[in-house]
């Protein structure tokens, strides 16, 4: 009996040990697999944070929009994977700002060792700056040596650890970050269009001649941690007016570490997402050398021309633009405020679309030319633009309904899928109205300079439709704003030509907006802009696109599933879509791959200066063999 009892105890103990060993093996395998998602960037998040937290979703959405392969990964799981044998040289990680300040000394050392062994890392401002208990260490931040920049010295600066500063850089760097002309200005333009001080403008910084600017007369300043001024080692991409490093890349052992001294997550939550998107894409393409799924049809740059028709006078100016041939090019987006008034009820200055035969005929002509018709807000343009707030939806929702009914009637009974806000005024309830009425694309003065994006308002995402940020030249976006500033025709036209070049070279979608009255005043510049885009389109390097067409493409693109896997000594890019991959395009860097071959699917491969451009012609699946450089 005693022998039987001992045998049962031994058997039970053995089972427990085997279960524990199996659990350990499973945990090791899971951590190892998680830490080596092939050719995928790991966004390191706190162990306590859910993968669907808004802050994490902000980065995941940005990665989808920029065509970057990225996955969130709890930092302890990433560390275990490294310790269990995940190859350090294949690691590409981002330590984000704002929501991942606290990390252990062990995590810091793991990151330092991984980069030294050949990995790539991007550290964003205060990411990892505090220890697990939430305290600063002694001296500079623990990642300073790896980044080649001394920062985060709380002992020295205390509550003066950061400044609020303007940012400078070279035009070529700005554009590699996806920042278009006009969102950066040279000193001469900044002196006229911003409130940047004369001392900053006069500072001789030949490597950093341009200033970042917003859609405002005020100078645009950002929270920047105080840093040293590296004399060697780190390559500085952007700096502040005080000389602090804003962005840099440093060689560390066999790997590279990028430092971004801007609160990227915070800025995107407050509708300035161009920097998070830009640095994410720069890290993925320039350091990690990851292929990118382009965000334009066939990987061809696309211009959205968005026309806001506010009042009764607009129709006469539309006739002049028709006579000049402006609407003979591509598909454009024209939005109408349809009511009988402009400044207040009863003033009679509006378009009165329901009873305006000339306006109705103009819309029919525009439709016959292939253009899209949309709502320009709320029936009485200036009254809505000035009076509508988050708190008076009951008073102003009827104006949206009235406008929508009138424009729908003129649009052959089809409810418009595009919207723009009078004076850029978009109360929160407007987003709900758009979702309820099938709006797929809307103009916005948030995130200025960006391609179309899913708008975030704090932790809320407006995910039913695409936001189309406006292009700006300092405080100017439209021609009449240029007129208010007495801007010469040549200067306004030069900016538009720079935008045309930028759209072509970046293969991206951007929106320019005009009012007919302003476009007529600056007609030579506007016509030259349209003609330049048409010449580019004739070379098959650019295209005109309406907001609806762009939104349809981007929504379809969101459904693309794609991965990169090892394939012997080479790699295999596999992509699929439930309906069709037609017009999807990837760019693949020549610095990493010397050839690309279509293994399955219908696609064309074209060599460009910097990479291989793959355009899909049809089909639901695609596989590409990527030949690694020797």
TrEMBL record:
GO biological process, one term: carbohydrate metabolic process
InterPro entries assigned to the protein according to its UniProt record, in alphabetical order: Class_I_gatase-like (IPR029062), Glyco_hydro/deAcase_b/a-brl (IPR011330)
Domain of life: Bacteria
Protein name stated in the entry: NodB homology domain-containing protein
Source organism: Comamonas koreensis
């Amino acid at each position: 009996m005693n022998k039987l009892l001992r045998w049962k105890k031994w058997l039970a103990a053995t089972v427990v040990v085997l279960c524990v060993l199996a659990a350990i093996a499973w945990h090791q395998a899971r951590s190892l697999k998680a830490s080596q998602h092939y050719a995928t960037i790991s966004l390191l998040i706190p162990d306590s944070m859910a993968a669907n937290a808004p802050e994490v979703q902000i980065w995941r959405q940005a990665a989808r929009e920029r065509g970057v392969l990225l996955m969130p990964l709890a930092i302890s799981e990433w560390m275990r994977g490294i310790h269990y044998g995940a190859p350090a040289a294949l690691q590409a990680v981002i330590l984000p700002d704002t929501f991942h300040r606290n990390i252990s000394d062990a995590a810091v050392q793991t990151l330092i060792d991984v980069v030294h062994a050949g990995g790539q890392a991007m550290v964003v401002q205060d990411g990892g700056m505090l220890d697990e208990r939430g305290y600063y260490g002694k001296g500079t931040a623990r990642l300073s040596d790896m980044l080649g920049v001394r920062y985060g010295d709380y002992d020295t600066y205390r509550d003066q650890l950061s400044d609020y500063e303007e940012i400078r850089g070279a035009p070529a760097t700005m554009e590699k970050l996806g920042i278009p002309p006009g969102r950066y200005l040279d000193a001469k333009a900044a002196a006229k269009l911003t409130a940047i001080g004369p001392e900053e403008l006069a500072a001789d910084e030949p490597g950093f001649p341009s200033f970042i600017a917003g859609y405002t007369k005020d100078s645009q300043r950002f929270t920047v941690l105080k840093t040293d001024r590296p004399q060697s080692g780190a390559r500085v991409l952007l700096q502040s007016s005080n000389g602090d490093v804003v962005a840099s890349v440093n060689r560390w052992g066999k790997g590279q570490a990028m430092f971004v001294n801007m609160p990227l997550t915070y800025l995107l939550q407050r509708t300035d997402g161009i920097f998070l998107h830009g640095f994410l894409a720069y890290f993925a393409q320039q350091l990690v050398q990851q292929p990118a799924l382009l965000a334009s049809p066939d990987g061809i740059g696309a211009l959205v021309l968005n026309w806001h028709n506010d009042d009764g006078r607009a129709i006469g100016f539309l006739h002049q633009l028709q006579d000049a041939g402006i609407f003979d090019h591509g598909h454009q987006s024209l939005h109408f405020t349809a009511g009988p008034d402009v400044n207040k009820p009863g003033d009679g200055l509006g378009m009165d679309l329901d009873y305006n035969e000339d306006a109705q005929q103009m819309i029919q002509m525009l439709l016959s030319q292939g253009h899209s018709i949309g709502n320009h807000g709320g029936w009485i343009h200036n009254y809505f633009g000035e009076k509508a707030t988050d708190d008076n939806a009951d008073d102003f929702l009827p104006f949206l309904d009235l406008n929508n009914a009138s424009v729908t009637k003129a649009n052959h009974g089809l409810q418009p899928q595009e919207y723009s806000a009078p004076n850029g005024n978009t109360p929160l309830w407007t987003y709900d109205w758009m979702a309820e009425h099938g709006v797929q694309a809307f103009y916005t003065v948030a995130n200025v300079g960006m391609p179309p994006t899913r708008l975030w308002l704090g932790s809320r995402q407006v995910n039913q439709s695409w936001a189309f940020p406006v292009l700006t030249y300092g405080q100017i976006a439209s021609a009449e704003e240029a007129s208010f500033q007495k801007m010469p025709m040549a200067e306004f036209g030069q900016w538009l030509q720079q935008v045309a070049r930028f759209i072509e070279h970046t293969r991206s979608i951007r929106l320019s907006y005009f009012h007919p009255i302003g476009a007529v005043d600056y007609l030579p510049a506007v016509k030259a802009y349209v003609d330049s885009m048409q010449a580019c389109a004739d070379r098959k390097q650019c295209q005109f696109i309406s907001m609806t067409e762009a939104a349809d493409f981007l929504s379809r693109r969101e459904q693309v599933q794609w991965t990169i896997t090892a394939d012997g000594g080479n790699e295999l890019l596999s992509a699929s879509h439930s309906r069709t991959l037609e017009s999807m395009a990837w760019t693949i860097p020549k610095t990493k791959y010397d050839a690309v071959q279509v293994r399955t699917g219908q696609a064309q491969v074209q060599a460009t200066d910097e990479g291989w451009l793959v355009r899909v012609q049809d089909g639901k699946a695609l596989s590409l063999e990527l030949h690694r450089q020797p």
